[in-house]
């Protein structure tokens, strides 16, 4: 018996998967997994991994839109390949995608390109905004996470970088960086 397995994702904690879940239920999904995590990479997406482990031959993974599944063309291709290898399909409720058809496969690849393009454009705009803010003296970056003076003082007192890292609860690389040394 084939299953319709739904996957819903939003990027931030203050967003809600409710609308996606309703659409997936209306599409006939008998299992729906949701998570609140960025789609720019597969790391940390435990619900997606659960779905990909669980899905079987003849099953269909259903999403509302492809950008809910992946924001990277490579990730999208890898997910579709995993589904294909298991004999499963992918469908989107809001887009004409069905990997069981040639047209659906072609449209999927076009949308994947646009999803990745959108992510790249967003990153470019963010970097432009940061550059402008830095030029105006408004953006200073995040505060240092390590007290460099304390690192230097402990080092001058004969403490090793590893011991300083343990003492301060930071990574050894951060200590080396604070001391102006290359980590070995």
Automatic annotation (TrEMBL):
Q: Which PANTHER family match?
A: DNA-INVERTASE FROM LAMBDOID PROPHAGE, RESOLVASE HOMOLOG YNEB
Alphabetically sorted, this entry's keywords are: Coiled coil, DNA integration, DNA invertase, DNA recombination, DNA-binding
Top-rank taxon of the source lineage equals Bacteria
On whether Oxidoreductase is a keyword of this UniProt record, the answer is: no
Q: Which residues form the Resolvase/invertase-type recombinase catalytic domain?
A: 3-137
Q: What is this protein called?
A: Helix-turn-helix domain-containing protein
Say yes or no: keyword Coiled coil present: yes
Q: Which SMART domains is this protein grouped with? A: Resolvase
Record-stated family: Belongs to the site-specific recombinase resolvase family.
Query: SUPFAM superfamilies attached here?
Result: Homeodomain-like, Resolvase-like
- One GO biological process from the UniProt record? DNA integration
Active site: residue positions: 11
InterPro entries linked to this entry: Homeodomain-like_sf, Recombinase_CS, Resolv_N, Resolvase-like_N_sf, Resolvase_HTH_dom, SSR_resolvase
Cite a single Pfam family from the UniProt record: HTH_7
Recorded hits in CDD domains, A to Z, give: HTH_Hin_like, SR_ResInv
- Molecular function as annotated in GO: DNA binding; DNA strand exchange activity
Where in this chain does the entry annotate a coiled-coil region? 66-93
């Amino acid at each position: 018996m084939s299953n319709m397995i739904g996957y819903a994702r939003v990027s931030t904690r203050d967003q809600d998967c409710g609308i996606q879940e309703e659409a997936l239920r209306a599409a006939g999904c008998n299992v729906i997994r949701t998570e609140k995590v960025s789609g720019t990479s597969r790391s940390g997406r435990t619900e997606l991994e659960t779905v990909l482990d669980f899905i079987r031959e003849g099953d269909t993974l259903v999403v509302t839109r492809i950008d809910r599944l992946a924001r990277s063309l490579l990730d999208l291709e890898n997910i579709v390949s995993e589904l294909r290898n298991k004999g499963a399909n992918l469908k989107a409720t809001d887009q004409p995608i069905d990997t069981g058809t040639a047209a659906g496969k072609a449209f999927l690849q076009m949308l994947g390109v646009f999803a990745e393009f959108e992510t790249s454009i967003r990153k470019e705009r963010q970097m432009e905004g940061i550059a402008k803010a830095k030029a105006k003296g408004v953006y200073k970056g995040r505060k240092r996470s390590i007290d460099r003076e304390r690192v230097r003082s402990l080092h001058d007192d004969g403490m090793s970088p590893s011991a300083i890292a343990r003492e301060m609860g930071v990574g050894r690389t951060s200590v080396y960086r604070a001391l102006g040394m290359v980590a070995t």
